[in-house]
Give the backbone structure.
Amino acid sequence: MALGPGRAGMAYKAKKTEAHAFQKIEKALKEGTLKSPLIFYGREQYLVDWAVGAIEEKYVSPACRELDLSRPEPETLSFSVLQECCETLPLFSEKRLVVISQFAPLRGQGAKGFSKEDEGQLAEYFQKLPESCILVFTAEQVDKRLKLYKAAEAAGAAYDFTVLSEDLLRGFIHKRLRKAGKTAAPAVVEQLMSMSGYYEKDGDYTLYNLENDIRKAVAHATGEELRLQDVADTVSGNLDTDVFALVDALSRHRKDAAFQKLQDLLRSGANHYQLLALICSQFELLLKLKEMRDEGMSLETIRERLGVHEFRLRKAAGFGDRYTAPQLRRILCSAYDVDRNIKDGFLEPSLALEMFVAEI
């Protein structure tokens, strides 16, 4: 799954980063060094599913898939069932693959039919897994303090499928465009990344969402090249991204665009309080960024201090420079006043938000 070559972030010094989990899996499969048991977890379940598929493609014969690939149902799973799956020899495949999806005990939660005694037996069994079997557990989240997790990692390996770096994400986009027979200029790809909200701190937008948005943009495009308008017309993004676009328009003194974005958000049914909270959050980020840069901090240091992805931080820095620190403080005070006036019933929420945008 080649996702593309690397390129250093514009505002950061080039640095060697650790390979992503999917790259480690690719390497292990190529070299024949994949261990078992395996724990695949993390936000990018898209890549977790890809990794399981890659192992299946490598070791399981398509003709014997029904026999040599086991996916026990959580409702019927017990240690004895799992052990039987693992110790059944593959028929004509190189390995037998056993996949336990969304295994609750790795989160410290109970699973129907899987007792604490079963967990203890499983932890000991990891050291006795037959070489003819590859056992994979998947989960969105894990508790690394658990004995079960530690035993699996010690006997095999655990992989955290985090969000892709910017370079890998660009490669992901380009690969899917090529597959669809389309091309896109760098500015269009950057716009797609920006509008998607993939790097929003608390967002739930993943590669599954991005792949779907790419399909929509490709279907919308009339020529061989994807255009900015194709992205603007089809990418769903999220509320946080839309608010960021509203703040960007305000920073450019584009009141018309800001009002349009606000009206779009209100018509979409966005909650007034959530909308105002996100506006405050965006301006708070701009103020923190401004103050920390005035103190001489680098963007890398600021990123580490604030826990904000560098892609989002660069976006904020790009239009945060259009304000002074006093201006940002005044805007925030106005936003807090609007919040208070809405909650006290002095102003109707939509009108209060429109007045706030007009005053900035």
